[in-house]
Amino acid sequence: MALATTSSHAFSSCLHPRRRHRGRRNVAVSPRSEVQRREEMEIVIVGAGVAGLATAASLRRLGVGATVLEQGASLRAGGTSLTLFKNGWRVLDAIGVADELRAKHLRVQGMKMRSASPAAGGVLREFSFEEEAPGQEVRAVERRALLEALASRLPPGAISFSSKLRRVVGQQGPDGATELELEDGRRIVAKVVVGCDGVNSPIARWMGFSEPRYVGHMAFRGLARYDGAGDGGGQPFEAKVNYIYGRGMRAGFVPVSATRVYWFICFNRQSPGPKITDPAALKREALELVRGWPEDLLAVMRDTPDDAVVRTPLVDRWLWPGLAPPASRGGVVLAGDAWHPMTPNLGQGACCALEDAVVLARRLAAAAAAGGDAASSYGEAMRAYERERWGRVFPLTARAGLVGALVQWGNPAVCAARDGVVIPRLVRLGPFLEHTNFDCGLLEPPPAAAAPSP
């Protein structure tokens, strides 16, 4: 389902961009010497995921160029979908890609909470977003479509594919620039390095962050396809989130588009266990976990191609005040999962990464427009970004972790109380979604900012 004006195949030809962009200068070197292949740049973003591409697109909208280093040969085609709430759509509106994504993805109208046990009577509670949380916007978006839409806002050559980071060499010279070494031997010196390299970020390790903490739950995720199947084609479900609760396990599914349905299973496991690389074996394991559960869930799973099923451990990192390292070090700063990985229990991982991108881009663009000492200006911009974002991401990370711990309980008495009292009588959707009212603001170029090169 092509949503972007520029496809990922077009980007894959830009392995070593030659065009000159604002904020980038190539140094003449011998192409035969790996050690001497040095490039000087203003802003480098490591990782072409949601946070990395959103940061680059936000900077460009503010008149600032940046180069994105992506270790893959093209945009990532894997993954399933991401659920975006109102705060995430506000960011996409600010960047300018929201409407093209809305056109291809269904607006979710409500939520149905159900029991996995036939004895519990099926539906425990049903919500309408319009009634419970007026103005809420919820859509599940294919990850690939989101990445392509963000990448389409960048000029040709802005993404350098097949550019895997080997190590951060460190700060170089009095101006505080940071040198990066890539696997292909290239050396890049940048005034600003933005680490958007995901949960297992090498840049976060270099900055002194601990490894993300496994929370004791695993997740299966899949994307069912209904291309031309059945009566007239298309998926048969109403645009509602279906949550199904069992003992120590929960599952759910939600329509993404006219032909796609996303589903998940979250289950307790003491340790992640060995990695399974056989797609068919992953799907068999997922189906076995929920054997005897509602048939519509099982049907969605069976309609999922083997290669569209993934299994991952759920992890997070709590940014305790005074204990966690700062989000920036010299000219290096973190954003998205590289800084604050969180469990998906609030549906805020991607939304917070998008928020990070806008806030950080706004700070960096203001520093670039102010002129003066670049190292000092960028350094203060990064610290201001951290101060602005820490109070937002730390509480959400903690809350997501606590919600996950509660809903994953397997005690029979607790589950009976959940199904008989808590969900039917006590749960209120509006207060639970209060965090989605956050507004990141617009992306308006500073007066001194010039438009980037086309």
State the low-pLDDT regions, or none: 1-35
Q: How many separate domains make up the residues?
A: 2
> Any idea what the CATH architecture of the largest domain is?
3-Layer(bba) Sandwich
If you consult CATH, what is the topology of the largest domain? Answer: FAD/NAD(P)-binding domain
Major sheet details: 9 strands, mixed
Q: Alpha-carbon distance between the termini?
A: 27 Å
Shape: globular
Radius of gyration: 23 Å
Provide a count of the helices: 13
Structural class: alpha/beta
Q: Tell me the β content.
A: 15-25%
Task: Give a structural overview.
This protein has 454 residues and is α/β, with parallel strands linked by helices. It has two domains: 8-81 and 145-212 and 318-403, FAD/NAD(P)-binding domain (3-Layer(bba) Sandwich), CATH 3.50.50; 91-142 and 215-315, 2-Layer Sandwich (D-Amino Acid Oxidase, Chain A, domain 2), CATH 3.30.9. The protein has 13 helices and 18 strands. The chain has helices at residues 8-11, 50-61, 86-95, 98-102, 129-132, 143-151, 202-206, 279-289, 295-302, 349-370, 374-407, 412-426, 429-432, and strands at 24-26, 38-46, 67-69, 81-84, 110-115, 123-128, 139-142, 159-160, 165-172, 177-182, 187-195, 213-225, 240-245, 249-255, 260-268, 309-316, 328-329, 332-334. Strands 1, 2, 3, 8, 9, 10, 11, 17 and 18 form a nine-stranded mixed β-sheet that branches. Strands 6-5-13-14-15-12-16 form a seven-stranded mixed β-sheet, with helices on both faces. β14 and β15 (260-268) form a beta hairpin. The longest helix is centred in the C-terminal third of the chain and has 34 residues, at 374-407. It holds the Pfam family FAD_binding_3. InterPro entries: FAD-bd, FAD/NAD-bd_sf, MOase. Residues 41-378 form the FAD-binding domain.
